């Protein structure tokens, strides 16, 4: 049964990318457990604005687990205490009366802090851009059944495509590796017949861009897989490595 709870909230505040950040502590009183964590931050921001101070900056958009914008560390976990859930899907019933809740931005060299809890994830966009386009016949639309795709291949591709690019894999990884994200994006295209035309070039370009942007390497700790809100499998990383090595050997 949901009830009102009171708790201590520690939030990372940082005025800009180069500024020194620190935690600001707030006492939250009578917050109903039926509201989401982001709604709790909204309530806090209203209070801060009414006090004539700067509200806490944090990213969000869909608030239903689709866009991947709500990238926060909550009590030391990317996206907080839920399993297979984004921050926006975390409700206050996950927390107890009298608890201390700590909220931080992603901590990774690949995602510099812009302000408070908002980080710059444009490096992900650059990796996607490096992947380029899929060659398609731009003539008349093909019948849906014209290209037959085995069910298991279609499912693997769709599973990889469920990655929302939130960055929790990078945030969870001690090496700051983006390999789960990059491998999911490579797999979703390279597994399908339509994506095979540029498969080798795409794997090389996206891996090179990932390295160029300073992301670390995978050492198989599987922290990324454990914290991914969409349950992306590290088998995608193995597939990406195979694609990359065979593309390089062909060179
Ligand atoms: S706000 Fe879109 S996934 Fe959380």
Short précis:
The protein is an alpha+beta fold and 251 residues long.
Structure characterization notes:
The chain has 251 residues and is of the alpha+beta class. The protein has two domains: 4-115, Ubiquitin-like (UB roll), CATH 3.10.20; 122-250, Orthogonal Bundle (Fumarate Reductase Iron-sulfur Protein, Chain B, domain 2). It is built from eight helices and seven strands, in the order ββαβββββααααααα. The strands form two sheets. A five-stranded mixed β-sheet has the order 2-1-5-3-4. Strands 6-7 form a two-stranded antiparallel ribbon. α6 (199-212) packs across α8. The longest helix is centred in the C-terminal third of the chain and has 16 residues, at 235-250. It is elongated and about 60 Å long. The model has no long low-confidence stretch (mean pLDDT 95). The chain binds FE2/S2 (inorganic) cluster (FES). The site of FE2/S2 (inorganic) cluster has 13 residues, from loops.
> CATH H-level name of the largest domain... which superfamily?
Alpha-helical ferredoxin
- The CATH C-level name of the largest domain is Mainly Alpha
> How many strand units?
7
Q: What ions, cofactors and ligands are bound?
A: FE2/S2 (inorganic) cluster
Shape: elongated
Point out poorly predicted stretches.
none
Computed CA radius of gyration, to the nearest angstrom = 21 Å
Q: What is the first-to-last residue Cα distance?
A: 62 Å
Query: Based on the structure, what is the oligomeric state of the protein chains?
Result: single chain
């Amino acid at each position: 049964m949901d009830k009102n709870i009171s708790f201590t909230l520690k939030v990372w505040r940082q005025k800009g990318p180069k500024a020194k950040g620190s935690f600001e502590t707030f006492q939250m009183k009578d917050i109903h457990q039926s509201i989401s964590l982001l709604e709790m931050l909204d309530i806090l921001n209203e209070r801060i604005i009414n006090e004539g101070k700067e509200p806490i900056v944090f990213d969000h958009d869909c608030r239903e687990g689709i866009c991947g914008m709500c990238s926060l560390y909550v009590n030391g976990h990317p996206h907080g205490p839920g399993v297979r859930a984004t921050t926006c899907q975390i409700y206050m019933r996950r927390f107890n009366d009298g608890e201390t809740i700590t909220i931080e931005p992603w901590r990774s060299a690949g995602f510099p802090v812009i302000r408070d809890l908002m980080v710059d994830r444009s490096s992900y966009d650059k990796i996607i851009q490096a992947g380029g386009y899929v060659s398609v016949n731009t003539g008349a639309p093909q019948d849906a059944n014209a290209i037959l795709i085995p069910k298991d291949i279609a499912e693997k591709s769709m599973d990889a495509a469920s990655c929302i690019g939130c960055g929790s894999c990078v945030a969870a990884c001690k090496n700051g590796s983006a390999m789960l994200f990059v491998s999911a994006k490579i797999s979703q295209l390279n597994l399908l017949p339509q994506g095979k035309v540029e498969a080798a070039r795409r794997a090389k370009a996206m891996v090179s861009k990932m390295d160029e942007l300073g992301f670390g390497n995978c050492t198989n700790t599987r922290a990324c897989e454990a914290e991914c809100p969409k349950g992306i499998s590290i088998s995608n990383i193995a597939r990406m490595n195979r694609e990359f090595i065979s593309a390089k050997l062909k060179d």
